[in-house]
Design goal:
Chain lengths: 220, 220
Amino acid sequence: MAAKSEQTRQLVADVALKMFREIGFEKTTMRAIAQEAGVSVGNAYYYFASKDELVQELYIQVQDEHAVVAAQALEGVQDLAGRLKAVLHTGVDVMAPYHQFGSDFIATAIRPSSPVNPFGAASTAAREASLAIFRSAVEGSPPAVAKKLRGDLPELLWLAYMGVALFWVYDQSEGQRRTRKLIDGAAPLVARGLSLAKIPGVSKVFDDVLGLVRNVKEDS
Amino acid sequence: MAAKSEQTRQLVADVALKMFREIGFEKTTMRAIAQEAGVSVGNAYYYFASKDELVQELYIQVQDEHAVVAAQALEGVQDLAGRLKAVLHTGVDVMAPYHQFGSDFIATAIRPSSPVNPFGAASTAAREASLAIFRSAVEGSPPAVAKKLRGDLPELLWLAYMGVALFWVYDQSEGQRRTRKLIDGAAPLVARGLSLAKIPGVSKVFDDVLGLVRNVKEDS
DNA sequence: ACTCATTCTTGAACACGTTCAAAAAATTTC
DNA sequence: GAAATTTTTTGAACGTGTTCAAGAATGAGT
């Protein structure tokens, strides 16, 4: 088994993530990581082709943790608003230790070329995992959501989650209180807004929105 | 008159923007700008404290142009959907020459510390100018929009515009066709969606959305 | 045990954005 | 106009992410 190799890789990743948390992204230089881990700079690059890939490591880890705690928080919660709250709040929870570093993360993640870009090909797995959380949030709430919406809803909610994450990055209130408030306010509103889809006049607009989303998504 | 000094400043800015357009952001190094402009690197830094500030220069210029062409495109258009389309399409028009460079721009702009961050203090003037465009788009369309929405609508539309810009950055279809399609589809939908505010059951949800926006915006 | 190939590790080197002490040029003061 | 002051300009230097040729360690086959 490639024990030694994997060990070095983990060591570098662990040291890097620890330093990200403790002193931030920019101050965590590749040289500092290497020194702290007791390896050469080039060796760190043997395992991670760029500093961005270390961010990807963080991204995956945070995502995994989110899946666990979200599943836990969803237990016993039935209504869509509550389930949405659970998923969003736990999402913010797992990101919390990295808040000061959030803006650098977003700046890294937002470039199409980045392995961490949430829309990109390189993070398909992570995105799927995240989408799955929202799918389970939607599927667990029995009647509230109109049939035709069920299919696209998880993806739309995930997109909204990206928006919340962006808001969170800019949120300088202590403990990111404002983000919490946004979640608490927006989740019931989304649920109520969706229930409006039953009103005839509104239903048509919903249809068109979904049509547009599908249309734009499939390029053509 | 500080002719000489201003001349150097303009020269550096012009060369930089030209290179941004022609070879992209990353390949346009400060050394290359200086060389092309016939000044020293340090001299470029005398006028622009960072490469980001050169991006800010671009941002302001694009914004100014948007104000001009949008005002032109709004002439004679009455309905909200049409006016929204006009503003959004012209917005994409003025950004077009910089599309390949868009992702770098966004990555720069998104960090809270950046002078170009659209939400930040350093770009208040530019944001106000952009907001004014949306304000005039809303105010020019007579009856369609409910009173209570008028006040906040420009800001919300501006926010949506930021979303469109983000979409545009990722849009790799030729000529950013998909973004055009998104605008054409979304503008009428927004207008129709807003007209739903008259329906009693819907109106309540709209009120709550506005309440949430205001609540979250004012921190507290 | 001895080759040979593969995997892992090293540290010097590169180009980049940025800084800064010092020089040059322009301007103001007398 | 000379001296003093301010504005502008220079280029070497720093620390950064990243690359790469070269060497060391490991493992496979005989």
